[in-house]
Amino acid sequence: MTSHQLDCQYSNDGTVASKHRSAGGRHWSAQICTALASTLAALALLGWALDDWKMLAFGDQFVPMAPSTAWSILLLGCSVLISSQWPSYRWIGLLARLASIGVALMSLEVLAQWLGGGQCAIEAWLTSSTDRVGSIPVGRMSPLTAATLGLTAWAFFLSKSSLGHRRLTRQAASLVAWAAFLFSMAVVVTYATGVPLLYDTHTIPMALLTALSLAPLASAIALGAGDDVFPLCLLAPTPRIGVKAVGKLGGCRFPVDLPLPVGRHRYGGILLFQASSCGVPARCAQRVVGNRRHEGGPD
User: Fold this and answer.
1) Is the peptide bond before 231 cis (omega within 30 degrees of 0)?
2) Is 285 helix (H, G, I), strand (E, B) or coil?
3) Phi and psi for 133 in degrees, rounded to 5?
4) Cβ contacts of 255 within 8 Å, gap of 6 or more
5) Which of 23, 120, 201, 248 lies in the 20 to 30 Å Cα band around 17?
């Protein structure tokens, strides 16, 4: 087969297919992480409903997840799950933004009351427990939890805002979500090493179950920001250019899908080209006619 018997067209089908696989993997990973976070929050609420908060506190020497924290994580988790499943519905996006705003306001209220030395009225309404772990009251949201939860809600709001399609907005959402993830994992590490934060102070510490719930929830939001933003862009597949050709052999025309190995090869009448051999951009197509030869290609 000679060069004038090939209609040569570059394509990035391999990259497109790889991106589809990557997007599908991120979608399902985010769904699983969100479902895990929501399930843990629901179990915490079940423990409070059964008046057995020690059930998921991993010991009576540790504080449990507060009801306000559990409801916030459950609300945010359900919003992430539903909005990622049906992203084309505007009213779902609106409800997701409202949910993130509500969780953010709850976090700000807890932080404001902590700075002012008061108690959040919503938390007092959700539970009337007077139990304590040492000098720490149970059933109250930690200021560390409020800060991490607020970051998570902010990241989700950015990803679902009217500017959520812009790369800069998604980059900001990714960085904020990963920051919340890293802080949650840091708290998990302190529990694993036997030196949990703030138990030797009068400040309410973040519960282990809370950290285990916020970490997958924040990672789900970060995964939803896309793989073209930092840090996921570092793991994105390398673009690969392929060749589509229509060959002619024995008077019959047939499609040929050619890879692009390094070097030039001729095998069985089918030409394999190096990426630079056609000398045209990947988006262009060039029909080779007559005796016109490719740059660096076969005669």
Assistant:
1) yes
2) strand
3) -110, 100
4) 244, 245, 246, 247
5) 248
Task: Give the Cα separation of 72 and 78 in Å (integer).
Answer: 10
Alpha carbon separation from 112 to 25, 163, 183, 238, 248 (Å, rounded): 39, 29, 21, 47, 75
- Cβ atoms within 10 A of the Cβ of 23, count? 12
Q: What is the pLDDT of residues 52-87, one digit of tens each?
A: 888 888 888 999 999 999 999 999 999 999 998 898
Task: Provide the token pair at 152.
Answer: 């998570």
Task: State the pairing for strand pair 242-249/285-287.
Answer: unpaired
CA-based radius of gyration for the chain: 28
List pLDDT tens digits, range 207-229.
999 999 999 999 999 999 988 89
Beta carbons within 10 angstroms of residue 69's beta carbon:
32
Give, in order, the Cα–Cα distances in Å from 146 to each of 94, 117, 182, 227, 272: 23, 15, 15, 28, 59
